[in-house]
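Researcher: We're teaching a course module on how sequence relates to structure. For the next exercise, students receive a sequence and then see the predicted structure as tokens, so they can try to spot secondary structure elements on their own. Here is the exercise chain.
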Amino acid sequence: MHDTAYEITTQRRPDDYPAYLPAPEGRVMLPSEIPPGVQMVTLPGGIRTLAYTQPPAPAAPLVPVVQPIPAWAKTTALLTPTIGGGIAAAGIGLSYAAPGLIAMSQALWSAVALIAAAAIGVPLLLRLGRAATGTGTGTGTTHITQNITASGMFGKANGTINHR
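Model: And here is the predicted structure for the students to work with:
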């Protein structure tokens, strides 16, 4: 009368429960019935159930493992002699160039001294030359004064020039 696909039963089989919940009838398994690798464990909610457990990991061997040399270390090791050789070549070049560098620095200081002497000496010579010819500060100086006025921005400008 009832279709078996839609039949409602009040009795459940142990296979109907998930693995972490015990059967409601509370049947205890004998130690001979428990398969190897399965132990009784307590879950965080306080439920005790059977579960597969992992055996402890074997201890690591005490033999050191050889690791490869990183690429950056190889590159640095290969570049070190090149950089050292470049520094040595620069040192040798400076030692050959030292007399010329000393001469150039002395020539530079001489040029600086010449420029400083010219900056001070030329105006003094010009003043002395004016004083000797009478065109310097004295009675022979001519002063020109201009007075210019204009009305407006674009207006006609008028002016006077005075010679004194």
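Model: If you want an answer key for the exercise: Residues 56 and 113 are 88 Å apart (CA to CA). DSSP finds one helix and four strands in the chain.
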